[in-house]
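Exercise 7.
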Amino acid sequence: MSWQIKWLKNLQNREILDMLCVPAISRFLRKLEWKEVRKMRRLWLGMIIAALVVGWWWWDRRSVTQELESIKEGLKVEEMAEELASELGVSLPDGAEKAELKDIAGDGARGVATKSEENGGWLITVLAALDDVDQGWYEGWLMNEETGELMGMGRLRIAKGGYLGEYTGMGDYDRVMVTLEMVEDGVPEEVVLEGVLGE
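Solution. The predicted structure, written as tokens, is:
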């Protein structure tokens, strides 16, 4: 029986030891976990701050780049307008809004549209450097992008170094097109130049 008594005593001592150690180990683990949580929290906070700084830097740089591109585009249009006005022997109104007419047909054509107030209405001028055509004629068109209203400017007239068209009226148009026409039907045909005023 003596070995049984010894075994019971050892078992009791082990249970007591376990009871004493488990809370201590538990507390130690909780402290360790809390340290890890704080460490992870600091890490995540640092990553968020870094991401915000990088995002702000990227957005600021993007805004500056867009602003510079806009300035370059504006200078390019101003230069083109002055060049075409000189080639065609016309003068442009001071302070007129200008837009590049982009080559849609891919023939190397160039053009500029200007818009200014005149006598309570609008004066829209189209200056274009276009190849002469054996068949058909070039015609100008104006459109109000909001309403879809279309207005024909009529045939562009030949100036000394290109083509010129003008519209004077109350209609407020923003999209400008130059087309190559073959039929007199009041419908735009092949678009060769196009641009938007006020972009």
